Amino acid sequence: MTAAALVAGPSGLVSCATCGLLSRPAQHGQTGCCPRCGTALAVHHRHSIEFTWALVIAAAILFIPAMALPVLTTTTLGSSESDTIISGVAYLYKSGSWPLALIVLIASVMIPLGKLAALSWLLITIQRGSAKNNHDRARLYRLVEFIGRWSMLDVFVDAFIVALVQLGPLMSVAPGSGVVFFMAVVVLTMLAAHTFDPHLIWDPGRIQRTSHD
Amino acid sequence: MVHTALDTIACPDCDLQQSVPPLPPGGRAQCARCKVTIARNPVDPIDRPLALALAAAIVFVVANTTPLMGLSAVGHESTTTIIGGAREMWSQGSEITAVMVAFCAVVAPGSFIAFILAVLLAARRPPAPHWVGQLLRISALVQPWSMSEVMLLGILVALIKIAQLATVTPGIGMYAVGLLIALLAAIAATFDSHVIWTRVVWADGTLPPLLTAARAPARATR
Description:
heterodimer, A: alpha+beta, two-stranded antiparallel sheet, about 55% helix, B: alpha+beta, three-stranded antiparallel beta sheet, two-stranded antiparallel ribbon, 8 strands
């Protein structure tokens, strides 16, 4: 069922980001608070573009140590061996479980990179004032928001391997320094998807309008 | 006199304002522009999610107190629980990772279930007090960080990775986590925050107006 009877475009009403209630701003140029839930109203997320760019760039920088540093260090009878995320994938592939290798590769490498690329593209098209591919861009944003949490997979894998493989001197596994960086990438990209204001896809002129206020 | 625009909705994704026609039970309305679901009319929006949330609370306790999996290799045996994964990370020097694992695997799903239970119990008899709205807002913030399903996939990958080194046996906790994920998905499908918002007392203490109230929009408070 499709909602019918559109209310004419800029009706002067502001929707509350918390409870969804539409209300008329308290006075011109000052939106005030939502009368139902009390949240401060805003025409759009303030500085959405700048915050999202900052988080995307920070995540892209941290992605390098996340891939380069080891996430697990295995000690077997005195000799120790370190694994990065990539070499963990390679190990899974070589030991014959390629579907598992594929899952980890997608969750740990493809999804974070894809999210960074997708958010950058969305931000650039909005800053250029593009009005093309709105439906595809809206769908891409929803995908980014939905899929982001799955990158956390490798952090859980590492945590449970570390928790379980503690067999005294025989064999033990310790977390490496790469885990923290990788986790930071996941958290920052999730926050970036949250800060990004999807309204801007449909109304890129909003940035210019509000910056003059 | 408070004027409201309760039958008009702004799409949360694209901000298009549109009026929603009366929906049949179980029906949903899509945004006319970006096709995201903007309104639902759940068949039983309070008691059904409440029953599911009660079940989820019980399963959550089981999932967190019973061993997830056990490992045995040449005479050594070890088991782990969900929080055990975070605890070992902490004692091995990765404190930040440990806190994040504990938050996403235990704190976020646990508090989400607790908030939803409190909200539904308080909203059973409208008008619901104003703090219900605050809890609803916090639960929406916590929900994306509740990662039980990601954790289960992580446990399975860890199991297969270790299975090449030692004998691993899944424990009761693992089945409980599987059930918990199904219950959390069912809560998400039956729970509708808009239904709760229509029952919550407004910020200035006035009773929630019915959907049939005046159509002129409310004026925001300063």
